[in-house]
């Protein structure tokens, strides 16, 4: 007799509203239709061979077992030195810098460390899609405050109005994904004044810190002592060195915050890939690669924008990051299909035109009104961008 299979036990989802991310969906659609993928934010070019050689050397030298839970000391020291040199704030490498399995893990771990059931965390929409699920998994309540609809700049009156006695933290992101705006020193000072008499903590997502254009400076939270004292600053080696698949990042925070961060970190990750940490520590001794990154990506931005100039896509400002947002309202060939909205446009663009993009609405929980903005990633080889631009100019 064949036994009847037992039914799989049912569970109540921790994230009932969450499905496959738009990034996976659009990348799969691009692959299906052979489209040029300017959707998901990763380079299609190689990193510096010297970085690969540094990791290989670390492997050959036997750095293949667990490192310290908080990260290889040489890498933490290199990060502390970089922050001190660029932003004027000296973090202690042993107690205030932690190496993480990418920036997303760092954000999630920071939330797990500080958020208790019912605590409120403010996010500024549109925003990176991991913020809200991470808050919910931490037991917190997501409080969504829209950025200015026209400029995507912070609206401090609305942020102030959203603060309650239950507010535990605010997450900010500059340079901003997806809008490519960059916070100014004045805006950082406004945030410091807003938080001055509160116990609200700050999580500052600075993964695009080395991609700020037109001679502007990245205004890291580390530049502002009042903010640094209450902040987790998060960055990404993957973004900086074109190795997003390595998933290595870091968090800088005062010792008291770092202690709580590490309590969680040791149980949800414990530690991070050893030879890559040693390789990165060696590679960081020469600052040229990250110091030249603004010019490297500004050239790509300018190349992409020049190519779009003759298209029906109206470009929004691009102050930083490696994203270019455009308004699709004047694309008559899409309007003629009878479809509406940025997601329908991105799907149509991928299938019919051969270029993949990401809809801005994917970064907003409940979009209001017509959604007419999409995001392209220009962290691509010139050949890739040229191929995409030739198709986009035909719109």
Features:
395 residues, globular, Aspartate Aminotransferase, domain 2
For the termini, the CA-CA separation is 64 Å
Report the CATH C-level class of the largest domain.
Answer: Alpha Beta
Helix content: 40-55%
The count of domains is 2
Total count of helical runs of at least 4 residues: 17
Average pLDDT metric: 96
CATH superfamily of the largest domain: Type I PLP-dependent aspartate aminotransferase-like (Major domain)
The helix/strand series, from N terminus to C terminus, equals HEHHHEHEHEHEHEHEHEHHHHEEHHEEEH
Helix and strand content put the structural class at alpha/beta
The count of β-strands is: 13
Q: Could you say what the CATH topology of the largest domain is called?
A: Aspartate Aminotransferase, domain 2
User: What proportion of the residues form beta strands (DSSP E)?
Assistant: 5-15%
> Which CATH-level-2 architecture of the largest domain?
3-Layer(aba) Sandwich
Element layout with pairings:
Elements (H helix, E strand, L loop, with lengths): L21 H12 L2 E2 L11 H12 L12 H15 L5 H4 E4 L2 H12 L5 E6 L5 H7 L3 E6 L9 H7 L4 E7 L11 H11 L5 E5 L19 H4 L2 E6 H4 L8 E4 L2 H14 L5 H10 L4 H4 L1 H16 L5 E2 L7 E5 L4 H4 L6 H12 L1 E2 L1 E2 L13 E5 L4 H11 L3
Parallel strand pairs: 1-11, 3-4, 3-5, 5-6, 6-7
Antiparallel strand pairs: 2-8, 7-8, 9-10, 10-13, 12-13
Helix pairs in contact: 1-16, 2-12, 3-12, 5-6, 5-11, 14-17
